[in-house]
Specification:
The complex is a heterodimer of chains A (430) and B (515). Chain A is an alpha/beta fold and 430 residues long. Helix content of chain A is 46%, strand content 16%. Classes of the chains: A alpha/beta (430), B alpha/beta (515). The interface between A and B is large, with 64 and 56 residues. The structure holds iron/sulfur cluster (2 copies). One iron/sulfur cluster sits between chains A (32, 34, 53-54, 56-57, 60, 117-119, 150-151) and B (33, 35-36, 95-96).
Chain lengths: 430, 515
């Protein structure tokens, strides 16, 4: 059943008036920022992530991906032990020793992140000082930076934000009198980057760069002539750091689905003075193709009720996409943190009366979810099987980070991620 | 500070979770930051448990640190009690909360809840998962069963003649390697001996069952890493003896049967005569001659490594060329087992060290954990998994114990399957130029992937040159032993002070190392 679909008709039926946000405090069932290392280390191909933490931190990273990525990974944990805590070992010396062993083993490493954890923060280990000292020792071969992925400071995707923000001060200055350039911010699969490069090139915008770059030596320059687009909704600190360097953020919804992608690209095109006619000429073929791909999944999703547990901060843009382009009904959209400014355009597009919740009280939220009995629950790995066992259908949220989902060409894949669990339910008899 | 790429064990509070999750009617309140909730997925995703672990995390944040994290902890305990109504609670701190020193035990007790609140002191910066499981189980047993302990020095009353003997099974937890099926297998063995199972714990036990542990005649310790401290305490408090044999492998199972029969005062002979494991016969059947002297490297937890070393050497006729474990607590036993086999025990939790040892030894079979499976895969060496840390594959849908006679059958199949089959190995040697039997053809019933790594890893950067014809000859050696042949030849050349290896050197070395 292919329902003809017109996003504008839906848009007319919605308003900017979003119901007040339900703010909760209680147990949170979310990963900490260390988790971002799992995708960041694949993205920046000559970077190494050294967590300074506990066995718990090491265990989290190796467990969070669900499987161990066993090709010699570019991350590790320097596990703090009782000697360090008792002051028997000099922590600086210990860190120097660990780093030198590591860099000896991995001559291919050009960028080393010291990643702070809850234990390193509680004992007030000054990793920024350590990073500066080690940079002094190893530059120019290796640059050493630091950021915090700790669970007391960061939730899941905020680890990526902290990592990218730590890169910003080392970005080169853009040359004097340089033309305006566009910077796309957020770790994206290479395939998505390449698609966007082609699109922007088609629009006549050759000066498009990406943060993070694939290699440490190719960090994009930044300055007052840099306009930037966030490709992810969780990059608040990175945006602030870029603004401090003079760069200007282009406000837009996020590039999920046809509508989000079009508005996001258009924000850049408008800023660079590209005509609507030209914009449509370049983007229409991909947009039409994407709409065709979405048609494929609409029957499975139309009218289905979806409940989001807070996890990645992608919840609001995804809910907007699913409601407006796939016709799903939003029961509750949880987010660990609501950045009103960066999400302003998204909130405007959400259907009227959408229930948003920020923060978490896990038990109460599970109660609400059970009562609502939605058709699909988006949640973390710890909750998925128990909810399935209760008869609910779930989608693991971490897959939304690991799968290419941005842009026109991936819009169908994004819809499919939500359609698959529903599809599967209908296939199984026992 | 220790540089760690992969860790064999989680922190000790994960051990506590394994105990709590295995039990019913118990709830664990853990003072921990939000990221530590990842541990739930170990149980719900890897073990595919249908229920959330019975764990409440306080998930304090940085902004709470200046304020009252203690109050946060208390309200978490109170709420968890109200919601879950457990029969008993355990309370403790993860690594971060340990640093802020809120005293979960004292706080929990101050609430005056009508159930036992058992404090756990699990030093995260010294100890690890298995230790944490053992300590937690011990604390639970002591706190709950202790109330019914007889006065010190009281004689244990003998079992009335009209009551069947009964025992407890101690040690199985959530997330254990095949614990689910080992319980079934051992329960069946004990039933065949006419012994009743009083309580199995922690697996499936409620605090009220723990309270009654002392009523059994003796304890069966399935996994010493987890159950030993509790069993020792029960011995002291209730005079309950405990088994010392772990029934993995045919001989160990037979010894186990004799041991429990003696403890229970029953006759072991009928069961021993009935014994029908297929392993001994399969191992004697002529097709198994190709297993003779297969060079095996063994690594895992102490219990499974000790058992595997015995089975490999005595029941399958392999040559154990190395063994090791991440369980430092059992280093003495492991060293002794290694000594009897004439090898060194590698006691380490450093994955890189294990990898280096395997690369150096070039075994023909690795018996290890999921970590060694990956090492072996990279080096192109066949591997079977014998121990935790576990992966989703280690929870098979089918019945698949390690213990008892059925466990021995399972072990025969899983260890032998990855190897090149007997005649196939000979054919490969005879027809090595056959285009389908070329180097990269692995066992034909297994995945045909490249296994070049084993060949390429040379033992040392020697100033030794291979003559072209010797190199060609070397390539005729089946790929799965080629790495060893190269290494042996180079070692041989070095001891002979040679700088060039010829075809002659190759065959001299072969004769020298002939086994
Ligand atoms: S929450 Fe803190 S202690 Fe736990 S894994 Fe994350 S950084 Fe480590
Ligand atoms: S392919 Fe078949 S016949 Fe050949 S060894 Fe494997 S199982 Fe045996």
């Amino acid at each position: 059943m292919n329902v003809p679909f017109d996003p504008l008709r839906v848009a007319a039926a919605t308003g900017c008036d979003v119901a007040p946000v339900l703010r909760e405090r209680g147990q949170r069932e979310v990963f900490c920022g260390l988790t971002g290392i799992i995708w960041l280390h694949r993205k920046i191909q000559d970077a190494f992530f050294l967590v300074v933490g506990s066995r718990t931190c090491a265990h989290l990273i190796q467990s969070a991906a669900g499987v161990m990525i066993f090709a010699e990974p570019r991350f590790a944990t320097a596990i703090i032990d009782e000697r360090d805590l008792a002051g028997l070992a000099d922590v600086d010396d210990e860190l120097d020793r660990v780093v030198s062993r590591l860099l000896e083993r991995r001559p291919d490493i050009k960028l080393l992140f010291l990643v702070g954890s809850c234990p390193s923060e509680v004992i007030k280990l000054d990793l920024s000082r350590a990073a500066a000292r080690l940079s002094g020792n190893y530059m120019p071969r290796v640059r050493v930076l630091n950021y915090s992925g700790s669970g007391i400071e960061t939730t899941f995707t905020q680890g990526e934000d902290a990592c990218l923000a730590s890169l910003v001060p080392s970005l080169p200055n853009e040359g004097n009198a340089s033309e305006r350039s566009l910077l796309i911010v957020g770790a994206l699969p290479d395939v998505v980057e390449d698609q966007w490069k082609r699109l922007f090139c088609g629009l006549g915008m050759a000066r498009v760069q990406f943060l993070p770059s694939r290699r440490a030596a190719e960090l994009p320059p930044v300055g007052p002539n840099t306009l930037f687009l966030l490709s992810q909704p969780f990059l608040a600190d990175t945006a602030r750091a870029l603004e401090e360097r003079g760069a200007v953020r282009l406000a837009a919804p996020f590039p999920f689905g046809v509508e989000g992608t079009t508005l996001w690209l258009r924000a850049a095109a408008d800023a660079f003075g590209i005509s609507r006619f030209e914009f449509d000429r370049v983007t229409q073929p991909a947009a039409i193709r994407a709409r065709r791909a979405l048609d494929h999944y609409r029957a499975a999703l139309l009218g289905k009720r979806i409940f989001f547990f807070p996890d990645s901060q992608l919840e609001i843009p995804l809910a907007r996409f699913l409601a407006r382009e796939m016709g799903m009904q939003l029961v509750e959209v949880g987010t660990p943190y609501l950045h009103r400014q960066h999400l302003a355009q998204e909130l405007d597009l959400l259907p009227q009366g959408t229930i948003l919740s920020e923060g978490q009280h896990l038990e109460n939220q599970i109660d609400r979810c059970r009562t609502a009995a939605p058709d699909l629950v988006v949640c973390g790995l710890g909750l998925a099987n128990p909810l399935e066992a209760e008869g609910l259908t779930t989608k693991w949220s971490i897959e939304l980070l690991f799968t290419p989902t941005h842009g026109y060409e991936q819009a169908g894949d994004l819809a499919e991620l939500f359609a698959r669990p529903i599809n599967r339910r209908t296939r199984l008899v026992a | 500070m220790q540089l760690t790429v992969w860790t064999y064990e989680g922190p000790p509070h994960v051990g506590a979770m394994r105990v709590a999750t295995a039990m019913e009617g118990l709830h664990y309140v853990l003072h921990a930051p939000q990221g530590d909730t990842y541990a739930d997925l170990l149980f719900t995703m890897i073990e595919r448990r249908a229920k959330r672990p019975p764990v409440t995390y306080t998930t304090f944040q940085a902004r709470d640190l200046g304020g009252d994290t203690a109050e946060l902890f208390k309200s978490a305990v109170r709420d968890a009690y109200e919601r879950f109504k457990p029969e008993a609670m355990i309370v403790g701190a993860s690594c971060t909360a340990e640093l802020i020193q809120d005293d979960p035990g004292g706080l929990g007790r101050s609430l005056g809840l009508p159930v036992p609140i058992i404090p756990l002191e699990l030093p995260s910066y010294q100890k690890k998962e298995n230790w944490g499981a053992a300590e937690t189980f011990y604390q639970i047993v002591r706190a709950i069963a202790g109330a019914r302990a007889p006065a010190a020095g009281a004689e244990r009353t003998a079992r009335p003649a009209d009551r069947r003997p009964r025992c407890n099974i101690l040690g199985p937890t959530a997330l254990g390697f095949r614990h689910r099926d080992d319980i079934a297998e051992v329960t069946r063995l004990l039933a065949q001996l006419g012994i009743d199972i009083h309580v199995t714990a922690p697996w499936g036990a409620r605090p009220s069952d723990i309270a009654a542990l002392g009523d059994a005649d003796f304890n069966v310790v399935l996994y010493p890493e987890i159950a030993s401290p509790a069993a020792q305490w029960l011995k002291k408090a209730f005079g309950q003896p405990a088994t010392t044999t772990v029934p993995i492998g045919v001989s160990a199972t037979r010894e186990f049967i004799a041991e429990v029969a003696a403890l229970a005062g029953v006759d072991a002979a009928p069961l021993l005569d009935w014994e029908q494991s297929r392993l001994p016969w399969y191992s004697r059947s002529v097709d198994s001659t190709y297993l003779t002297g297969k060079r095996a490297f063994i690594f895992g937890d102490a219990t499974h490594v000790l058992a595997a070393a015995r089975i490999a050497s005595r029941e399958l006729g392999f040559a154990v060329v190395g063994l090791g474990s991440y369980t430092r607590e059992y280093a003495r036993e492991l060293r002794e087992a290694a000594r009897l086999l004439g090898v060194d025990a590698l006691i380490t939790d450093d994955y890189l060290e294990v990898e280096a040892r395997i690369a150096e030894l070039q075994p023909e079979l690795v018996l290890g954990t999921q970590m060694e499976r990956h090492i072996a895969k990279r080096l192109g060496i066949p591997c079977a998994v014998i121990s935790a840390p576990v992966h989703v594959q280690d929870f098979p849908a089918r019945y698949s114990p390690q213990m008892g006679f059925e466990g021995a059958n399972v072990i025969f199949d899983t260890w032998v399957h990855p190897l090149m089959m007997g005649l196939e190995e000979h054919l490969l040697t005879m027809f090595r130029d056959d285009h389908e039997f070329h180097d990269e053809a692995g066992p034909s019933h297994l995945d045909k992937r490249k296994s070049a790594a084993a060949d390429e890893s040379r033992s040392a950067p020697l100033p030794i040159v291979w003559a072209a014809d010797a190199e060609r000859e070397l390539r005729k050696v089946p790929f799965f032993v080629r790495g060893k042949a190269r290494r042996n030849t180079e070692t041989f050349a070095q001891t002979q002070g040679l700088t060039q290896i010829t075809v002659e050197t190759l065959y001299d070395a072969k004769a020298h190392f002939a086994r």
